Amino acid sequence: MNQLILITISVFLFTILLNNIKNKSNFSKFIIIPVIVAMLTKYIVGDLDSGYTWSVIDIFYWLYIFVLSYILLLSMDYKFI
User: Do the beta carbons of residue 33 and residue 15 sit within 8 Å?
Assistant: First the structure.
């Protein structure tokens, strides 16, 4: 459970940080930011399980990061936060 809290905090921080940087790419921020956030979170915080085999937990992990980052971007775009 501690790992999930760290993942949530890192997703929030990375998404807010990257949203404040001007997007000079040809990709929508709603696509590129969740991808970068997912990669940074995986690299810095790690995964929910150990080992190199894929499992249902890994699917939940990736979906959780992408959806959370996307929802946060939507809420910042509409000035809910």
Answer: yes
